[in-house]
Write a structure and sequence with these properties.
By secondary structure, the protein is α+β, with helices and mostly antiparallel strands. Helix content is 35%, strand content 28%. It binds one RNA strand of 78 nucleotides through residues 1-3, 11, 13-14, 17, 28, 30, 32, 84, 87-88, 123, 152, 154, 156-158, 163-164, 168, 170, 217, 236-240, 272-274, 276, 305-309, 341, 343-351, 353, 362, 364, 366-367, 374, 491.
Length: 491
RNA sequence: CGGGGCGUAGCGUAGCCCGGUUAUCGCGCCUGCUUUGGGAGCAGGAGGCCGCAAGUUCGAAUCUUGCCGCCCCGACCA
């Protein structure tokens, strides 16, 4: 037993870290707050990225790339925006190093001070809107629908692998439209893309909703979000889509002439998901034996492990497995045949479970005599003997069952962790004992939300879309309310 | 930035109070043989500036002071 994972019950944070480190998704780095994403973790990210990218293209977006550095003056053009990010920006002040005349080290050359300091992008609205100004003159130039995949830096006080690191990878879409309606449609469309991706690919059920003013993106008119529920009962914001109104157009003077040759400011959106999704994926499905990955995103969907005593048996197994692999690949099933002899089968079983590989196939001489193989699924730990006839079909079907099963499991957990509270005592009790989302009435004010946060550490995660109208009284103040909102403690 | 831990081989650790030959053990690594259906066994072997720097001492992993780094918990945030 070389790799032991701390059980969830013992220490949830440690369990989470153990999974990431021991499954080989990431490592800590020499830079505080920054992580190294290892090949296995990056392969997972690539699958997510590729699918999202396809979905963005299908909805009419194009990729582009904007600079890492943003002139300091840009950031301050939109008042709410600068206030939201000012506290966590890395600033470039110099452009040259030199040998320290006092010693052996290297120092910042004081003579190489930048005239205007550069901010390492925490998000790119400002540099992009400064650029859009030159792209947009007429309604014929609209809409502009651009996305970029990049890294951003937010100097957080406290970091957590994948969930919050100083530097992280993400995509940010930035669109410009002629009308408010069209921009809102775009905002909602991208929210739906995210929700569909989370549910169909990550097997992660999410609640779609709108943020309260407190939780809104700095500079947005409305922030839409998808909220997911983790196994410890804490909520995680998995993606956001913002309707920016004309805020950035006004700040950067982006106007267009409409058909009547009247000038108006353009309407904007921005939307993003990040490597944080990897954290969500880990916390949503994994167990005390390691990662559990949804087949659609798993870098390895099927691992085949040979079991043999003699070289002659191995040869027979090799030939058969070669056929299996060809069949699997023809169906675009990502398969690995692990014939490395330096580890024994038992070791491999444990290792691939730790890495969350959805399906394991053990092939021994005994199996082949019966024209069968042993198939084990990661999600249920179930083992079964399966005929080699039509194996690729069987496995393809099994993979889709696994995808569905882990989604249903996460959904059942999530649904059982949305609890209604009608009194303050109930509200506090649910947060303390059960966790999850608490559905409760709220008087709609920031002051009340702040006070609830102060008292319980819970925040409003979202006001769900298509929320039913219901007469009620605010959980804290008793004032009139017309709908319930979802509260939770969150990451 | 507050509170709590921890820095000894690639990883996890013992030793530290009470200074004293060659720094402990496990995993991993290398060689060989035996093994292979749930993290193999035996034998041999390599690997250390005990986080860094000063100090005390005949002598420091151990005592003193300073510094550095990381993790966990909180405030801030995706």
């Amino acid at each position: 037993m070389s790799k032991v994972i701390t059980p969830r019950d013992t220490d949830y944070s440690q369990w989470y870290n153990d999974i990431i480190l021991k499954a080989g998704l990431a490592d800590y780095s020499a830079v505080r707050g920054c992580m190294v994403i290892k090949p296995y973790g990056f392969a997972l990210w690539e699958h997510m990225r590729d699918q999202l990218d396809r979905m963005f293209k299908e909805t009419g977006h194009q990729n582009a790339y904007f600079p890492l550095f943003i002139p300091k003056s840009f950031l301050s053009k939109e008042a709410a925006h600068v206030e939201g990010f000012a506290k966590e920006c890395a600033v470039v002040t110099h452009y040259r190093l030199k040998n320290d005349p006092e010693g052996t080290g290297i120092i910042v050359d004081p003579e190489a001070k930048l005239e205007e300091e550069l901010i390492v992008r925490p998000t790119s609205e400002t540099i992009i809107w400064n650029t859009y100004k030159t792209w947009i003159q007429s309604y014929r130039d609209l809409p502009v629908k651009v996305n970029q995949w990049c890294n951003v830096v937010r100097w957080e006080m406290r970091t957590r692998l994948f969930l919050r690191t100083t530097e992280f990878l993400w995509q940010e879409g930035h669109t410009a439209h002629a009308t408010s309606e069209e921009a809102i449609d775009e905002t909602v469309q991208m929210l739906n893309v995210y929700a569909q991706f989370a549910e169909e690919w990550m097997a992660l059920p999410v609640v779609k909703g709108v943020k309260s003013a407190n939780e809104r993106f700095a500079g947005a008119v409305d922030t839409y979000c998808i909220e997911a529920m983790m196994q410890d009962g804490k909520a995680l914001q998995a993606g956001t889509s913002h309707f920016l109104g004309q805020n950035f157009a006004k700040a950067f003077e982006v106007q267009f002439a409409d058909k009547q040759n009247k000038l108006d400011y353009v309407w904007a959106t921005s939307w993003g998901v990040s490597t944080r999704l990897l954290g969500a994926l880990v916390m949503a499905h994994s167990d005390d034996d390691g990662l559990v990955l949804p087949p659609k995103l798993a870098p390895i969907q099927v691992v085949i492990i040979p079991i043999f005593r003699e070289a002659s048996q191995k040869k027979i197994i090799d030939e058969k497995v070669k056929e299996f692999c060809a069949d699997f690949k023809a169906r675009e099933i990502r398969v690995v045949y692990d014939e490395d002899d330096s580890n024994r089968p038992g070791w491999k079983f444990a290792e691939y479970e730790l890495k969350g590989v959805p399906v394991r196939i053990a092939v021994g001489a005994r199996d082949l005599e019966n024209s069968s193989v042993e198939v084990a699924r990661r999600d249920t730990k179930e083992k079964m003997s399966v005929s080699v006839e039509g194996l690729a079909d069987t496995i393809a079907l099994l993979l889709s069952h696994i995808q569905e099963n882990i989604y249903q499991k996460a959904m059942a957990y999530r649904d059982s962790h949305i609890t209604r509270a009608d009194t303050w005592e109930e509200f506090v009790d649910i947060l303390e004992t059960k966790g999850g989302f608490v559905s409760a009435h709220w008087d709609g004010t920031s002051e009340t939300e702040d006070q609830i946060k102060e008292l319980t550490k819970a925040t409003i995660r979202c006001i769900p879309l298509n929320n039913p109208v219901e007469e009620g009284k605010c959980i804290l103040t008793g004032k009139k309310s017309t709908e319930r909102v979802l509260f939770a403690r969150a990451y």
